[in-house]
Structures are given as C-alpha cells and as structure tokens.
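Collaborator request, handled under Task 6.
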Amino acid sequence: MDLIDLLILCICFIFARIWWRYWSVTGSGPKNLPPGPPGWPLVGNLFQTILQRRPFIYIVRDLRLKYGKIFTMQMGQRTLVIVTSSELIHEALVQGGPTFASRPADSPIRLIFSVGKSAINSAEYGPLWRSLRKNFVTQFVNPVRIKQCSWVRQYASENHMKRIKRESLENGFVEVMSNCRLTICSILICLCFGARISEERITNIEGILKEVMLMTTPKLPDFLPILAPLFRNKMKEAIELRKKQMECLVPLIRNRRAFVEKGENPDSEMWLPCPTAPPDPTETFAFTVVMKNPLKAVILSR
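Structure tokens returned to the collaborator:
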C-alpha cells in the first residue's frame, strides 16, 4: 500500500468517524432538545432499546440517573422527550397545556381503530377533541351521573363475586387479573349503553378489546416507516379485527336505538334494571360508530 492509498484510507476513516458522531448525538443541536443517550446512525436508540429486552420503564429509570429528569431518545424517525419529574410534567401539561395538547401522527394500524384520529384518546387538540371531552365529562364522570349509575357498579360487583366463587370451587384458585379486567370492562360497557349487558356479550367485547390492544402496540414500522411493506399481513389482520369489532358492537348500538324509539320493555336487554333510581329524563347517550360505510353519531334520548 503506497502513501496515497494510506492517505485516502485515513481521510475516509476520519469522515466516517465524524459522520457517526454527528448522527449518533441525541438532543441539543438546532432543535435545542435535552441531551440523551448516544444512538446509532439512522435508527438512533431504537435497536439499543430492543436488544436490552427489558420493559421500557426500566430503561427510562436507569437513564434518569445519568441524564436527569428530562432527556431525549431518538427512536428511528421519532424523537421522544422523556419527562420523569412531576414538577416538569405539571409545567408541560398544565401550565403549557395548549402547546403540548396535540398528539403525534398515528401508524396506519392505529388509524384503523381510532377512526382516523376521531376518538377521544386519539383526536388532535381542537374542536373535535373538545366536543368529545365535553360529552365524556357531562355524560359519564360528573357526580350526578355517577350516582345515577350506581346500579352498574352493583351489577358488576355481584357478577364479579359470583365468578370468583365459581372459579374457586371449580379450580381451587382464582385468576385475579382477568376477573378484575372483565369487571372493569363490564362497568364501562354498561355505562356506555345505559343498560345491563349480558356477561356473555361483555366477555366477547373484552376479548376483542384485548386483541385490539395487542394489535396497536408499537411495532418497528411505527419508528421506521420504510419497513412498513414487510408488515403487510399485520395490516390485513388489523382490518379483519376491525370488522370483527364492528360486528360485535353495531348490533348493540342498533338494539339500543330501537329500544329507545319503541319505549320501555322489561324483556329487552336494553331495559334499565333499576327503576328505583331512574336517570334524568333529559339524559342523552352518544354513540359514534364508524365502519366502511360510516354511521354518523347518534344522540339518543330516553
């Protein structure tokens, strides 16, 4: 190897070193982000996180000791600013609420289940989100509604105890987590429809919701969209699961609408099971269901 070849090799090595150092730095720079752990070019800290094979919260806990209460992680094409202090969280989400109120772009799979970011937990900050939030607060979580729906909690608690006793007698043990999850799901579904939904239906809905949760967990294409073609089967599975979800929920919505239009019927599943504590006559229920042929939001009054 002559002197020119050696010189070219050294120059290439220096440029490669500079390039690696430039693309591996996390935080600071023109965006003025908090410093964070150095990553790899193009993928940032993504593969470093995956290779650790630990829950992400444990990784954050360790990084906090080194980089402080706020730091940056570059996960592929997504930049995450991790905040681990209650004071900083309050400053960001309460004092600077409008600035940080919106949400980042969703993956194609999440867009299927969030109906194009039209759900309360996915909508961007704006008129739609404020309308959904207002409906949720006024119809679900205000003290009057909570008191009126005490029968839901009683109904769910009774079924919960029956399941625990039955499992204890049949199996000799009780699956605490699955029973608690089903009970909470029962309360939410009965509140949504304003009626006592059978436990068989609730079990079916809870199983589908669990599948949806697993389907929408972050995957590689969420951070590296260039890999999306390799996950086409996941998109097909998500579409099929969405159809299954609609086939489960749409009949309940239609039954509720038919029940309200025809009046009280004690034989109907949608009958209010607590006549001693009737709801406010002005009570309304809003159901938003979007399918391939979208069903518009329907406001149903009792």
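The cover message to the collaborator said: "The first helix runs from residue 3 to 24. The chain has 13 helices and four strands. Please let us know whether this matches your experimental observations."
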